[in-house]
UniProtKB/TrEMBL annotation:
Signal peptide: none annotated. Keywords: Membrane, Transmembrane, Transmembrane helix. It comes from the Bacteria. It comes from Ramlibacter agri. The keyword Transmembrane applies. This is VanZ family protein. It holds the Pfam family VanZ. The chain crosses the membrane at residues 7-28, 48-73, 85-103, 123-141, 162-183, 217-241, 248-270, 276-298, 305-327, 347-365. Residues 22-135 form the VanZ-like domain. InterPro entries: VanZ-like (IPR006976).
Length: 378
């Protein structure tokens, strides 16, 4: 039995939350149509449909099927369901995906902006089956075992939480950020949301009143936020990597991924011709400074990296949340939230908001418990 706990379970849980969010957004206007909630199962082919809708329903559930099947395969507790563990893992994953899709389609009966569809349900099940089959196929050819051996060589046993956070980090960067690599800027929206929620109540007066409005970051503060935004995932990786050489490789890969995903986000927001428009002088200097900091931390022990990571997260969130978004950036958010990105904005937006705070909690928990000396696998 491997000493490493699988990261597929928490990733499957996070993806399930995404499916629920994307299926029921915007969670308002609930009403009863006075029809049986399962009536959609017996409806005919929808009059209006697009190939994009078909592809989105299939592709949207493929990662769920893949992660669920991988979770059952890694846990090794599906033999009771079938003679071969791969068949059992695929069967359980498809049943779980079908149950989730059925629940989502049923609940959509009560949302005015959603239409329950038996076609969507069938496509979701097909996507789950495809994703689960890919996981089973990779296991058959030995790819899952090779990944397990790679993980054992590169990472310490207690690495699941950090690996999940690192796997989610690129997706968090997809949602447009006011500052490149600047995740966790929630103060302005949080204050506005609480004020709207407390409107016409005596508790509204409890909110603090600002003497001045939040202002955009000056170039020096932007440089610092970009540098820390690149530095933080590198430190998180250092907390679980075994050797200095592997840390160096990881730092280069992490920085390349951060730059590439930020460029993709800009291309989705403003068009491919503006994919690199965010690379101002301050941003380029911030990326270089973050990379230098990452190189300086290469020989520092894991517990020291965790302590510096805590400091970096606190400073990054503090500086970033003292700034407001520009009007141009606000228009970009509206394009994501109300336009063609509405199917995807829930995942990236929420990840961009909460990722650094979850990382902060994870590191706090990690440094608060004693760390056993790691063993190098033979």
């Amino acid at each position: 039995m491997s000493a490493h706990k699988t990261s597929a379970w928490p990733l499957a849980g996070a993806y399930t939350a995404l499916v629920v969010y994307a299926s029921l957004y915007p969670f308002s206007g609930w009403r009863d149509q006075e029809i049986a909630p399962w009536e959609f199962l017996f409806a005919g082919w929808p009059r209006y449909w697009t190939w994009f809708d078909i592809g989105a329903n299939v592709v949207g559930y493929m990662p769920l099927g893949f992660l669920l099947a991988l979770s059952f395969l890694r846990r090794g507790n599906v033999r009771r369901f079938a003679g071969h563990p791969n068949v059992g893992a695929v069967a359980v994953a498809v049943l779980a995906g079908a149950a989730l899709s059925l629940a989502m389609e049923t609940l959509q009966n009560y949302l005015p902006s959603r239409v329950a569809s038996n076609v969507d349900f069938g496509l979701n099940v097909a996507g789950t089956l495809l994703g689960a089959s890919v996981a089973a196929g990779l296991e058959l050819v030995g790819a899952i075992s090779r990944w397990s051996r790679f993980r054992a060589r590169w990472f310490i046993p207690e690495s699941r939480g950090a690996l999940v956070l690192l796997a989610l980090w690129p997706f968090a960067l997809l949602f447009p950020a006011a500052v490149p690599l600047g995740l966790g800027q929630v103060l302005e929206r949080l204050e506005a949301g609480i004020a709207d929620w407390l409107q016409d109540t005596p508790f509204l007066e409890w909110l603090p009143v600002r003497d001045i409005e939040l202002q955009p970051l000056v170039p020096a503060a932007e440089l610092l936020c970009v540098a820390l935004g690149a530095f933080i995932p590198c430190l998180l990786g250092y907390c679980i990597l075994r050797t200095v050489g592997r840390r160096a490789i990881f730092a280069v890969v992490a920085l390349a991924v951060g730059i590439g995903v930020t460029a993709l986000s800009a291309a989705l927001s403003w068009g491919p011709s503006h994919a690199w428009a965010w690379l101002s002088v301050a941003v380029r200097m911030g990326l270089a400074f973050g990379f230098v900091l990452s190189l300086l931390m290469l020989p520092v022990p894991r517990r020291g990296c965790a302590a510096v990571l805590l400091l970096a997260l606190v400073v990054h969130l503090s500086v970033l949340n003292q700034a407001s978004a520009s009007a141009y950036f606000t228009d970009t958010l509206q394009a994501w939230e109300q336009g063609r990105f509405i199917r995807f904005h829930g995942l990236a937006q929420w990840l961009g908001w909460i990722w650094p705070y979850v990382a902060l909690v994870y590191v706090l928990l990690r440094v608060s418990r004693p760390e056993a000396p790691p063993t190098i696998p033979q």
